[in-house]
Amino acid sequence: MVKMSLGVYVHYPYCARHCPYCDFNVAVTRRVPHGQYADAVCAELRVRAQDFMERPPASTVYFGGGTPGIWPAEHVARVLEAIDSSLGIADGAEISLEFNPEDATHSRIKALVDAGVNRVSLGVQSFNDGYLSVLGRRHDGAQAREAVQIARGAGVQNLSIDLIHGMMGQTLAEGLDDISVAAALGPEHISTYQLTIEEKTAFGA
């Protein structure tokens, strides 16, 4: 009998701004309760772990959001320790964390790497400043390129770049140009998602 693998997703809901296309469960606040939220995640892990006792240790852990890149590394480390003690984390597990380009600093990413994060997913969305403005993003194309270099310098060896295509007015050539720019930066992975207009977003209003 083949054992099923285990992956753990940790949702971090806090953001500096609510993007007009986003329909995820997010909260925009100036005072983020970083420690209290980590406490809540660790408590939930302890409660839910009993439902997964027959599974092998987690082979993947993914911190998504929201904007988990603003969660201080000490709290990410606490959550990883709680996952390991409650469920187990396999040797060589992929531990990913979503990061926005405008938040990228060497010290912040290095601290996350030291805490155990070994894969960073950069929410670039586009390298075109005009489309970034349409999407309500806080970074520009230059910052996105720089964030890749910062991540590499901080020790990230597994890097993903997320893009959005199908934006209002975007041509095929512009979409392909985003992919070409991303590929030239040498990430291990590129994801591109078609923009979907959801009713409960600013774009769907």
Supply the key terms:
about 200 residues, alpha/beta, six-stranded parallel beta sheet, two-stranded parallel ribbon, 6 helices, 8 strands, about 25% strand
Q: Which class best fits the helix and strand makeup?
A: alpha/beta
Question: Strand order across the biggest sheet?
Answer: 1-4-5-6-7-8
The counted number of beta strands is 8
First-last Cα distance: 50 Å
Q: Fraction of residues in helices? A: 25-40%
Poorly predicted runs of 5 or more residues: none
Main sheet properties = 6 strands, parallel
Question: What fraction of the residues are assigned to beta strands by DSSP?
Answer: 15-25%
Overall spatial form: globular
- Mean pLDDT across residues: 95
Count of alpha and pi helical runs? 6
Could you tell me the radius of gyration in angstroms?
18 Å
Order of helices and strands: EEEHEHEHEHHEHE
Task: Describe this entry's structure for a reader.
The chain is built from six helices and eight strands. It is globular and about 50 Å long. 35% of the residues lie in helices and 24% in strands. The termini are far apart. Helix 1 runs parallel beside helix 2 (73-86). The chain has a six-stranded parallel sheet. The chain has 205 residues and is of the alpha/beta class. Strand 5, helix 3 (106-115) and strand 6 (119-125) form a beta-alpha-beta unit. It has helices at residues 34-48, 73-86, 106-115, 129-134, 141-153, 172-184; strands spanning 7-12, 14-15, 27-28, 58-65, 89-99, 119-125, 159-165, 189-194.
